[in-house]
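Hello everyone,

My group is preparing for a crystallization screen and wants a predicted model to guide construct design. The compound we'll soak is LHIR3OJJ. Before spending weeks at the bench, it would help to have a computed complex in hand. I've included the protein sequence and the ligand's SMILES below. Output in structure-token form would be ideal because that's what our pipeline reads.
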Amino acid sequence: MATRVRPSSKRCAVIGGSGFLGRHLVERLVDRGYTVSVFDIRQAYELPGVTFHLGDLCDKQALLSALKEVSVVFHCASPAPGSDDRSLFQRVNVDGTRTVIQACLEAGVQKLVLTSSASVVFEGTDIKNGKEDLPYAKKPIDYYTATKIQQEKLVLEACSKEKGFLTVAIRPHGIFGPRDPQLVPILVDSARRGKMKFIIGDGSNLVDFTYVENVVHGHILAAEHLKADSPLCAQAYHITNDEPVRFWDFMSQVLVGLGYSAPRLHLPYALVYGLSLLLWLITLVLRPLVQIKPTFTPMRVALAGTHHYYSCARAKQDLGYRPPVSLQEAITRTVESYPHLRQGA
Ligand SMILES: NC(=O)C1=CN([C@@H]2O[C@H](COP(=O)(O)OP(=O)(O)OC[C@H]3O[C@@H](n4cnc5c(N)ncnc54)[C@H](O)[C@@H]3O)[C@@H](O)[C@H]2O)C=CC1
Ligand SMILES: CC(C)CCC[C@@H](C)[C@H]1CC[C@H]2C3=C(CC[C@]12C)[C@@]1(C)CCC(=O)C[C@@H]1CC3
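Reply:
Good plan to model first. Here are the tokens for the complex, ready for your pipeline.
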């Protein structure tokens, strides 16, 4: 009689493992003795002990071959938020996540840890010390956020103790750190084009920026604490640095650290938000003729001019989470990791 091999609890797969967060997660998992398979549409690096499976997460057969004997799946793949492509977000974040769940069930995966986003509750207005019980945004600020909401619901609803399939969602916010393709590069590009002279609003708005290694730590704690009798099943957890910071102080510290000037002049929030909406509408109308990528999208302006910071008390209580790297240390490490983006480089 054929015996089914019981997956080792240290065998995991990282969907989106070639990305910024995914690669940091893979590196940490390897350090902790996990056997890791990466599933991604691209291979961005090589690492001893890591197997790469190239494929689209919407393809169940491709997923199934990567999930053989895997007990834990981390799903941190998504199109970039800035891509603004409605059908791509729907296909990957919603339909694709359904496929991931189905493949996990068929492959006998025991745990699925989703990288969601704290933005699932953000509607463009202030959130101060937001807890996980805030309702999902009724009017999500963009397609990315709208599909992250649907994705999180799908994953949490799939949690089934009867089927031996447990799920949890991690909601990070403003991830930054070495190799981030988004935050620091966009900031520096804006500074180099002379667009970082202005502070949007009065500059007092507090925001969470979370160091990538802390986000990774939260994911691994969640995977290791997720058990049938634990409070984690079908729950979402904010993972932050637990040190809200003024948005413009954070941006200024990174800019000055890299040799650029900090923004000084103030512009009224309502004016900049209105202009960004107008620009967005114009790009929408012109899209068939010309592709314009505005720096100041309504989403970015809303993020730059409002409070949005979250409580991670639930993660502290249920996961024993404490951010291992302080914000100051994280900024120093990040600035040092981008010598090629320094002024004059
Ligand atoms: N960067 C941030 O500040 C935040 C990110 N998140 C979430 O964290 C996760 C990781 O984000 P990042 O590492 O920043 O993004 P990233 O763009 O660096 O990585 C995403 C990875 O997913 C892969 N991918 C995209 N579509 C795929 C598909 N159809 N099949 C297989 N792989 C596919 C990409 O090739 C890429 O390697 C995402 O789910 C994102 O929504 C949540 C909160 C904040
Ligand atoms: C041009 C400037 C006004 C802003 C430059 C920095 C921004 C690129 C970043 C500041 C906050 C960041 C952020 C995200 C992306 C990069 C920023 C807009 C997310 C939208 C990434 C995906 C998420 O799930 C939420 C993030 C919130 C913060």
